[in-house]
């Protein structure tokens, strides 16, 4: 068994891939200036334009351009950088002072002040969908119009990284209080792009914000197109309808690699694809059944076939690149053991259930393979495919038997995932859709969460990984690569291993 922490390596890989892509685009691009619009395609629509609600990656790829946070993490170097806060200082193990840049404007022309920061963090804490990222905060106090102090309940190691996550975005207090519904439909941020329109299930359009504190974006217009089928995103890239296509399948990547007008950007991601079993329902409240399901699944076969080798069989719900990962070993594929466990649990002839998944083509294919594997041990699982928003809403309510999910550890720290997916206080919207309520899980999560001593944290996460491997509330399937297909004329694009690709410095030659 071993611990791994390879964030620096990921940053280096991302930099190399990005530079390689930029070099290719520079050599092939036509002369004649730059396009005034960048169009990128993704497989799902935004779930909400409110940054304190829409935490799913398809939403953040859009809202991350509209809103900013106090600090940010460089997607290439993994280093913390100032954003809305020009600097900060730690006053004590539980207190941080942030100095807000003067002159930052929201898209409605009003100035961003410390009052907006306090309002935003208080609102995020009170919002169930994203509270887990900021509820380590005890209170936020305003010292003057450009200074805030963030106090935490206890020492909390990932404080700054959590405040860099897009769900901790700073929003305009006056505008939201004056018209909360209007803000949801027409979001106002301080980011590099301002919102223009949203055609649900089709597209979101944004326009460069000329008064952005870091300078106006390089390209005037930014459009996100919803194209559910990866193959159609690839075709749109080939025909020039898209400049960038997110999250493609291995077969699509082969097509792009074979086209000298296109480029592939890819890097190991920080995400895990997993199956959550609803422990509020029988038979999933029986640990033997959950263990039987795990041993019935051949993870390596899924990686080799569905993912065409572009991934790694998963043993934990956090990826090896995440701080706090501990290798417990992938559960052995053993159908006979699975049958024995089912018999011990009182299901010698198996049982019937449903497996829910959103309409991601690759995730659907993974589920189809899992259903066949479960059938071989006597479990009949019905596949139910639904739109992402409905999938999130209904699984939050606990209507599912089993559900296929993907989770990105956006802070690269184990607390982000273990707290939201495993802690009893985070059931439902925050992420715990197994509805686990286990005192030992809570104790270990809290121990890792409230200590700033790396040795204590790592020991807590090691013990937690071992405990969860036995509890088997989630069946961890695979760590996947992240990829983007691009036109060679795209310049200055850097892939973000989290998936929140930033485009304000990207240009596309005509």
UniProtKB/TrEMBL annotation:
<dbReference type="InterPro" id="IPR000914">
    <property type="entry name" value="SBP_5_dom"/>
</dbReference>
<protein>
    <submittedName>
        <fullName>Dipeptide-binding protein</fullName>
    </submittedName>
</protein>
<keyword id="KW-0813">Transport</keyword>
<feature type="signal peptide">
    <location>
        <begin position="1"/>
        <end position="20"/>
    </location>
</feature>
<dbReference type="GO" id="GO:0043190">
    <property type="term" value="C:ATP-binding cassette (ABC) transporter complex"/>
</dbReference>
<dbReference type="InterPro" id="IPR030678">
    <property type="entry name" value="Peptide/Ni-bd"/>
</dbReference>
<dbReference type="GO" id="GO:0030288">
    <property type="term" value="C:outer membrane-bounded periplasmic space"/>
</dbReference>
<comment type="similarity">
    <text>Belongs to the bacterial solute-binding protein 5 family.</text>
</comment>
<feature type="domain" description="Solute-binding protein family 5">
    <location>
        <begin position="79"/>
        <end position="427"/>
    </location>
</feature>
<dbReference type="Pfam" id="PF00496">
    <property type="entry name" value="SBP_bac_5"/>
</dbReference>
<dbReference type="InterPro" id="IPR039424">
    <property type="entry name" value="SBP_5"/>
</dbReference>
<dbReference type="GO" id="GO:0015833">
    <property type="term" value="P:peptide transport"/>
</dbReference>
<keyword id="KW-0732">Signal</keyword>
<dbReference type="GO" id="GO:1904680">
    <property type="term" value="F:peptide transmembrane transporter activity"/>
</dbReference>
């Amino acid at each position: 068994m071993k611990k791994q922490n390879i964030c620096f390596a990921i940053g280096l890989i991302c930099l190399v891939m990005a530079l390689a892509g930029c070099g290719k685009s520079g050599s092939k691009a036509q002369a004649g200036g730059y396009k005034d619009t960048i169009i990128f395609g993704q497989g799902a629509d935004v779930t909400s334009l409110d940054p304190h609600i829409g935490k799913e990656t398809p939403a953040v790829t859009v809202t991350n351009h509209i809103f900013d946070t106090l600090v940010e993490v460089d997607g290439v170097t993994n280093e913390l950088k100032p954003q809305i806060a020009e600097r900060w200082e730690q006053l004590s193990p539980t207190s941080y002072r942030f100095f807000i840049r003067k002159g930052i404007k929201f898209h409605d022309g009003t100035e961003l002040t410390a009052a907006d920061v306090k309002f935003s963090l208080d609102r995020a804490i009170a919002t169930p969908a994203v509270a887990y990222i900021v509820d380590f905060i005890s209170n936020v106090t305003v010292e003057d119009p450009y200074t805030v102090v963030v106090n935490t309940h206890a020492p909390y190691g990932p404080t700054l990284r959590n405040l860099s996550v897009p769900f901790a975005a700073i929003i305009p207090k006056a505008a939201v209080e004056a018209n909360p519904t209007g803000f949801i439909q027409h979001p106002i941020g301080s980011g590099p792009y301002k919102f223009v329109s949203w055609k649900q299930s089709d597209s979101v359009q944004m326009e460069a914000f000329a008064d952005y504190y870091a300078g106006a974006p390089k390209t005037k217009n930014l459009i996100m197109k919803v194209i559910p089928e990866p193959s159609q995103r690839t075709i749109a890239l080939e025909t020039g309808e898209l400049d960038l296509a997110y999250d493609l399948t291995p077969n699509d990547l082969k097509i792009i690699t074979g086209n000298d007008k296109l480029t592939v950007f890819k890097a190991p991601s920080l995400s895990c694809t997993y199956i959550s079993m609803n422990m509020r329902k029988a038979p999933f409240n029986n640990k033997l059944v959950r263990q039987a399901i795990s041993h019935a699944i051949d993870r390596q076969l899924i990686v080799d076939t569905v993912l065409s080798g572009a991934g790694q069989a998963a043993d934990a719900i956090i990826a090896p690149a995440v701080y706090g990962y501990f290798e417990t070993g992938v559960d052995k594929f053993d159908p006979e053991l699975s049958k024995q466990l089912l018999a011990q649990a009182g299901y010698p002839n198996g049982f019937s259930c449903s497996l829910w998944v959103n309409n991601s083509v690759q995730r659907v294919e993974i589920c189809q393979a899992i259903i066949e594997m479960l059938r071989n041990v006597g479990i009949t699982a019905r596949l139910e495919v639904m739109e992402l928003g409905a999938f999130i809403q209904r699984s939050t309510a606990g209507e599912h038997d089993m559900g296929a999910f993907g989770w990105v550890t956006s802070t690269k720290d184990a607390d982000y995932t273990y707290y939201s997916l495993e802690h009893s206080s985070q059931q439902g919207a925050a992420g715990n859709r197994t509805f686990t309520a286990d005192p030992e899980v809570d104790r270990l999560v809290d121990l890792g969460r409230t200590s700033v001593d790396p040795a204590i944290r790592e020991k807590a996460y090691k013990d937690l990984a071992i405990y969860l491997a036995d509890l088997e509330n989630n069946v961890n399937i695979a760590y996947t690569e992240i990829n983007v297909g691009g036109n060679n004329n795209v310049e200055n694009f850097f892939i973000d291993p989290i998936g929140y690709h930033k485009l304000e410095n990207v240009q596309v030659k005509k």
